[in-house]
Design goal:
453 residues; Hydantoin permease; 77% helix; 0% strand; globular; binds 4-fluoro-L-phenylalanine
Length: 453
C-alpha cells in the first residue's frame, strides 16, 4: 500500500482513482436499477430528464465532493469539520454516512441475487428454459428466505474481504480488469438485443420521449437516479477523493466518471428494453426486470451459456466495486474520527449492515406484506428514503457548502492538479454550483412534498 510519507494511504495514480470511482459509480444502479426505474416511469422522457439531472445536478455535486475530500484528506464528517470548524455543516457528512449504510443494506440483497445468478449460469444455464420457465425460476429463488439471505451474506462477506485488504491491494486491483470487460460484454448484449425480431418498439420506448407520462414524481425519481448512479450524496466521492494525490487534476477525472456511468446506464437500457418488447415482458416489472429479461436473451444467443456466466459474473463484480465504496464511507469515518482499526471496523460495520439488510431481502418473501413508507415494501421504502431523499439532501448540503461557505474560488483552486489544468468554462460552473444546482434540488423537493400532501 502506498502511503503519503507515512500519512494517508493513496491511489497508485490518477488511473487508479478514476477506475475506482468509475467502479463505484457503475454498478447495480446502472444495470439493474436504471432499467427498471425507467420502465416504471414511462421510458424516453425519464431518460432525458435523467441525463439533464446528471449534468446539472450530479456533476457539480461530484466536483464539490471530490475536491472537498482531496483538500482535507478526510472522511465526509471530518472534511466538513475541518473546513468549517464549530459549525453544524458536519451534519451533512452524517447524512452521507447514514445514506451509504442504508443503500448498502438493500444493495447487498440484489448483490446476493447476482451471485446466485452467476452460480446458476455456471451450474444449470438458462438455455433450456422457456420464457415462462425463466420467470418461474426467478420467482422460486426469490421466495426462499433462507437461500436469499445466504447469498446476501456471501455478498457482504466478499465486500468486507476486499475492504480489509485496503485501497490498492483490494479496491484498485478488483477494478482494473473487470470494468473494461463489463463494458465489452454490454456492447455484445446491446447488439444481440437490438437485432431481435420486434426490437424496434423497445428502442423507441427508451429513446423517444413521451412527455405525457411525465409528472413531478418522474423528475424526483430521475434526480434520485442521477445521484445514485454517480455515487454522489453519500460521501463516497469525498472519501475516494481523500485518497487522491494533490498532483492530479480533478476535472478530467470527473468527465470520465460521468461519461462512463451514463453510457453504461444507457447501454443497459438498450440491452434490456428491445428484449422486453420482443419477448413480451412488461417494462414495469420492477426489481426483477434484469433477472428475467437478460437470461431470455442469453437463451437465444449463440454461446449464450458462456455469455450468461460472464455477464452475471461481471455484474456481481460491478456490484462489488460499488458496495466496497459504500462500506468505505462509515469505515473511514470510524478510522479517522475514532481511531478504530480497519479489521475491527470492517467486521463491526459490515456485520451491522448485513443485519440491517435482512428485512429487505425478506421483503420479497415472508415479509412481503409488511409495509413501510407510503405503503411500499421494506426494500422499496429503504430505497426511496436513501436514493430519493438522503442522497439529494446530502448533495444539497455539499453543494451549498462549496458554493456559499467554502467559496467557489477555493473549489476551483483545489480542483487544479500539478499541471495547473482547471475546470473549463469556469464562470458557467460557478453559476451552476451557486444557483442552478441548489435551486433545482430545492424546487424538486418542494414540489414532491406538496404533491404528496
Ligand atoms: N453508483 C452505484 C451504482 O450505480 O450501483 C451505487 C452507489 C454507490 C450509490 C455508492 C451511492 C454510493 F454512494
Amino acid at each position: 500500500m502506498a502511503s503519503n510519507n507515512g500519512s494517508r494511504e493513496q491511489w497508485s495514480g490518477k488511473f487508479g482513482f478514476i477506475l475506482a470511482s468509475i467502479g463505484s459509480a457503475v454498478g447495480l444502479g446502472s444495470i439493474w436499477r436504471f432499467p427498471y426505474v425507467t420502465g416504471e416511469n414511462g421510458g424516453g422522457a425519464f431518460v432525458m430528464i435523467y441525463v439533464i439531472c446528471v449534468l446539472l445536478l450530479g456533476l457539480p455535486v461530484l466536483l464539490s465532493e471530490i475536491v472537498l475530500g482531496r483538500s482535507t484528506q478526510r472522511n465526509p464528517v471530518g472534511a466538513l469539520r475541518k473546513q468549517a470548524p464549530n459549525t453544524p455543516w458536519f451534519m451533512g457528512g452524517f447524512i452521507g454516512i447514514i445514506a451509504s449504510i442504508i443503500i448498502l443494506s438493500f444493495y447487498s440483497t440484489v448483490g446476493g441475487w447476482t451471485l446466485y445468478y452467476t452460480w446458476e449460469a455456471i451450474a444449470n444455464g438458462f438455455h433450456q428454459l422457456s420464457i415462462n420457465g425463466i420467470e418461474a425460476k426467478f420467482g422460486s429463488f426469490i421466495s426462499n428466505p433462507a437461500t436469499t439471505v445466504i447469498w446476501q451474506a456471501l455478498f457482504m462477506l466478499l465486500t468486507m474481504g476486499v475492504c480489509i485488504f485496503g485501497l490498492q491491494n483490494g479496491i484498485e486491483r478488483t477494478n482494473k480488469f473487470l470494468m473494461p470487460l463489463l463494458g465489452l460484454m454490454l456492447i455484445i448484449l446491446v447488439i444481440r438485443a437490438v437485432t431481435l425480431p420486434g426490437s424496434g418498439e423497445g428502442i423507441r420506448f427508451i429513446l423517444y420521449p413521451d412527455w405525457s407520462s411525465v409528472s413531478i414524481t418522474t423528475i424526483f425519481e430521475a434526480l434520485g437516479m442521477a445521484f445514485f448512479s454517480l455515487s454522489v450524496g453519500a460521501g463516497t466521492m469525498i472519501t475516494y477523493g481523500s485518497f487522491l494525490s494533490k498532483k492530479e487534476s480533478v476535472p478530467s477525472a470527473i468527465g470520465n466518471i460521468v461519461l462512463f456511468s451514463t453510457l453504461v446506464s444507457l447501454a443497459a437500457g438498450l440491452a434490456i428494453f428491445p428484449a422486453v418488447f420482443s419477448l413480451g415482458y412488461e417494462p414495469n416489472a420492477g426489481p426483477a426486470l434484469v433477472f428475467i429479461t437478460l437470461p431470455s436473451v442469453f437463451a437465444q444467443m449463440p454461446i449464450g451459456s458462456l455469455s450468461a456466466v460472464l455477464f452475471f459474473f461481471l455484474l456481481s463484480m460491478a456490484a462489488l466495486t460499488s458496495s466496497i465504496s459504500l462500506l468505505e464511507v462509515p469505515l473511514r469515518y470510524l478510522e479517522d474520527e475514532h481511531q478504530l482499526n480497519r479489521k475491527t471496523g470492517t467486521i463491526l460495520t459490515g456485520g451491522l449492515i448485513f443485519l440491517l439488510g435482512i428485512p429487505s431481502t425478506l421483503s420479497f418473501n415472508i415479509l412481503s406484506d409488511t409495509k413501510g413508507l407510503f405503503g411500499l415494501t421494506i426494500f422499496d421504502s429503504l430505497d426511496f428514503l436513501a436514493s430519493n431523499v438522503l442522497l439529494p439532501l446530502g448533495g444539497l448540503i455539499v453543494i451549498l457548502f462549496a458554493g456559499w461557505k467554502w467559496g467557489m474560488n477555493q473549489v476551483l483552486r483545489e480542483a487544479r492538479g500539478e499541471d495547473g489544468k482547471g475546470l473549463p468554462a469556469q464562470p458557467f460552473w460557478v453559476f451552476i454550483v451557486r444557483w442552478v444546482t441548489p435551486l433545482l434540488i430545492l424546487t424538486v423537493f418542494a414540489f414532491q412534498i406538496l404533491s404528496s400532501l
